[in-house]
Each structure stands twice: as C-alpha cells, then as structure tokens.
Design goal:
The structure is a homodimer.
Chain A lengths: L1 E4 L8 H12 L25 H8 L14 H10 L3 E6 L9 H12 L7 E4 L9 E4 L13 E5 L12 E2 L4 H5 L3
C-alpha cells in the first residue's frame, strides 16, 4: 500500500504546541483547552480579534522545526515501512510559506533522518496525489479531483463528529489499516 | 487538462544561470558551453574534482530565488490558464533542501504572484502526481508507479537524443499540446 501521512497534527503536534506557546506568551488571555477544540483551524475557535496574535505564534521562526512528535508516530511509520508499505508524508504548507516549507523538511530530517525528506510531498491539493490511504486529521479533504485514496481520519478533538470514515490513532493503526 | 510543469530549466533558467555564475566566480576554470551540455546534472558534464565547487554555486543562498524566467514561460502559463487548463508546478527539490525549498516558493511568488504558490507540488517522485501531461526537461522520469501523465520533453541541449516523446518549447507549445 501507498500510505500518505499528513504532517501537522498527525506526526507533528502543531496544535498542542500552539496552545502551550499561546498560554506562555499571552498568559491571562482567552484560550481553548485542547480537548475542547472544535475547528481544524485554531483561529476559528478563538475570537476574531485574536487572529493576528494567533498567527504570530505559529508563523514564528522555529515554531514548525520545534514541534514535538506525536506519541507513537515514529514507531508506527518505521513499522509500516518494515511491513512493506510505501510511506509518504503529504503536507500542505501554510499560505505564508516563509519559515514553514523549509522547517517542514528540517523537522522530518530531525526526527526521521535526511533520507526521509525524499518522502515528502508538499501540495495544497492532496487529491492530485496518488495513494491507497491518506491519514489526515482534516474533516473533509477536497480538491480538483475525486481522490484515489481512502481518507482515514487521524483522531483529533476537532474531527470527532466525523462518523463515516475509519478513525485511526498511533495506538490502534494496525487494526484500523487491516483490510484497507 | 491538468498540465504539470517542471520548475528548473522549464520555467526558471537554472543551468543557464549556473553557467553564468560559474564563469564569473571561477574565471579561467573549465566550463561546458550551454549548447554542449550532455547530462541533466551539470556536475556530470564536468570533471569529478569540480563537483564541490559546482554545488557551492547552485546551493548558495539566493541562487534559486534569482533565477531568470525562461523566455516565453510566463506568457505560456498565463495562456494555458486562460484556455481552461489546470496548471501546476511540479518540482523536485535538491537533496540539500536548505535555501532551495523556500526559494522555490519565493521564486514562484516573485514571477507569478502569491496565489500561484498554491499551484506548487514538491515531490521527489513525480509518478505519484496525477495529471494529463508533465512538461519536464529530464530525459526519463521514473518512480514508484507507472505515471498517469504523458511526459512531454521540454527541449534542452541535454535531452536532444530523446526521440520517442513529444518535444516542446515555450514558442511551439500550442501546436505540441494540440491533441494531448
């Protein structure tokens, strides 16, 4: 199988790290606890007037590079490869690509080694990428084409209402991928 | 049609710019005139002992960002979009991605505008990208899968021996793409 794996919030703890930095940089400011997050986009869970501050946190140099690994992700990817699957990291960079695209590569090198950067596919439109499954936390993934892959939801608080797709974590991935 | 277009040596004059900088930085050093180039990789047309120097030229900060547009490329892309085609820039970053990936985005923004950066697909393996045609100067494009797209050769000195593929320039693209 070609297993496409999203980067932010599937491998790299983007929104967990955002919340930690938000609370540290703006103590006393409004915040949404991680488990209470309802929207894929952090700023949509916050009052509109905080958007600029929010963006300043995750667009800062070093934010992407220093994202912690999501627990179990590294072991799961290594195992998928051992099992003979072709793993690719399929990621959409922020529209403000500065600090983002290069740090996405550097993050993959830091956690998975330099050779693994050859597995990165950066695209705004994931429907243009071929694969058997795409593991992604976004609720709905649309684009120019009808996707070839099956979208498997990576379980995050903001996608819990999605019921019509298989749901995966890095603890249950073996069972969920059976028969994919 | 989904028209995938390679970036280096199809839109951005990578090897022309390399030669100019090479001769400026290392006057008196061996060089290969552009029309005499035989290999897709510049360093393979040069003695092995020059490889490090060669890489230092094209891996330098600003090299990618300052590449000139290949003549006719901008008008052709604009016309392709007007004609209703879906144009995407499909590019493989250098293995040493530092200075390369972010500058590829910045180059596209500089010449085609910020929105156009949404059309970028970065991947080492172009066979994983869906499309009707891929316009690329590389002689053979292989990867994990049998590609969906037809490979149309973008005419460069190092691919002139390729005879079994349609051959395109930004002067004759309308005729060549007819019936693709």
């Amino acid at each position: 199988m070609i297993v496409l794996v999203d980067q932010d919030n599937v491998l790299a703890d983007f929104d967990g790290s955002f919340l930690e930095k938000w609370r540290r940089q703006f103590p006393g400011e409004f915040y949404v606890a991680f488990e209470q997050r309802k929207d894929f986009y952090a700023h949509k869970d916050y009052p509109e007037e905080l958007k600029e501050k929010i963006v300043s946190v995750y667009a800062a140099p070093g934010f992407i590079l220093n994202l912690p690994l999501i627990s179990g992700a590294s072991e799961a990817l290594a195992q998928l490869i051992v099992l003979g699957h072709d793993v690719r990291i399929c990621s959409s960079p922020l529209t403000n690509y500065q600090n983002c695209v290069e740090e996405k590569y550097a993050w993959v090198e830091k956690h998975f080694g330099k050779d693994f950067t050859n597995r990165i596919i950066l695209t705004q439109d994931k429907t243009l990428v071929r694969g058997d499954v795409l593991i992604d936390d976004k609720q709905e993934i649309t684009g120019l084409l009808n996707p070839e892959w099956e979208h498997i939801i990576f379980d995050r608080p903001w996608n819990r209402e999605i019921r019509n797709k298989r749901r995966l974590t890095w603890q249950n991935w073996r069972e969920v991928l059976q028969g994919a």
